[in-house]
């Protein structure tokens, strides 16, 4: 069930009405939970069982951790019991994630290794369907366990932790909302203010615009054909294709996040922002403060710091940075291209740290615009591996760009214009959407309703054949 579809619009209107007609907060949460399972079951009902089991697992492990910590405070039981249950819970989550997401990939690598060693027998490979959003809700469950162990969040009920992991606005593509942020909101009675309603509607329409007008148009009419057969395109077309994908993935992913934040706001809940004009970054470190913020903060708090971070010397810092980005790349999918994408980011992050450590105070600094230009092109280079299906496809794409070969330019003026519009979003005033929400708030309710419905109909009419799934649905 995709956000920009009539089916979802009907689903949300019904859910919205039922939620606000219900006066009891516990029943409201139960309705939200059932609605979220219906939303998820629209892809495959079998995955709902996995979602329920994952919620039960993470709640039960957290309860065992809390009980072990209480016994330790009372001087009873094994002192390492809480850590044992934490490790057990993390391993269980990673096993679920690994089976569904990496089973086929690693088995194929093992078979290739065995064949190279002379093993000629066929090894049967079980076909495993990847549940939508499994990486997101697994990370949310793990963060709850770890935060309980670290005393950084309060105990959650089974209903609250299951709803946290299942809540449909962020279920399949984030943001990764932590228990410490959302569970306290679940406990309180939600309120829908005029400001929240205006902000929510503005974000939903803004996200729909980015998805339907820019991301889908670029993907269908330019980016997908270029990446499908790089050899059929000249170097300039390939360069424009790389720029096009950089704009497409930003508009696609940030559109989902904007709509998720907006939908949650209409239901009375506040989500954290997930993007902050990432292509405006002047360093790669700054880029990761602006891009997929919920994931970068998760990797920082639960992986980078656990690997030592900056507390144990320079070598350990570089190792932690590199390993965090490698695993962050692998989180996106079972492909060497994602590992290479992570390695590029990790390598450049380390190179930035090395440069900052050797640079002298008197040395001239690069102009700010040049730093932004360089960072954007590093990110765009890495996107080529991210987008390409295989390593060979990415290398063919890069070779085609480097060859400086001629050929017809298939990027129409409209495609170039959409790229420029998508990039220009990074240099608008940061509060542009908030200003639009303030304006909508001041409009009479009947007029605001007409404006929103008209905008929705117009955006739907621009994509009569529908829109492709969001890119991050596959992760």
From TrEMBL:
GO molecular function: acyltransferase activity
Cited InterPro entries: Ac/AlaTfrase_AlgI/DltB, AlgI, MB_O-acyltransferase, MBOAT_fam
Predominant subcellular localization, coarse grouping: membrane
Keywords, alphabetical: Acyltransferase, Alginate biosynthesis, Cell membrane, Membrane, Transferase, Transmembrane, Transmembrane helix
Domain of life: Bacteria
Keyword Membrane included in the entry's annotation: yes
GO CC annotation terms, alphabetical: plasma membrane
Membrane-related topology note: Multi-pass membrane protein
Pathway: Glycan biosynthesis; alginate biosynthesis
Subcellular location: Cell membrane
UniProt KW Lyase keyword: no
Alphabetical list of Pfam families matching this protein: MBOAT (PF03062)
Protein's GO biological process: alginic acid biosynthetic process
Transmembrane residue ranges: 6-22, 49-68, 80-105, 125-146, 158-177, 189-209, 315-332, 338-356, 368-386, 406-426, 438-459
PANTHER family: ACYLTRANSFERASE, TEICHOIC ACID D-ALANYLTRANSFERASE
UniProt similarity note: Belongs to the membrane-bound acyltransferase family.
Entry protein name: Probable alginate O-acetylase AlgI
Top-level taxonomy: Bacteria, Pseudomonadati, Pseudomonadota, Alphaproteobacteria, Sphingomonadales
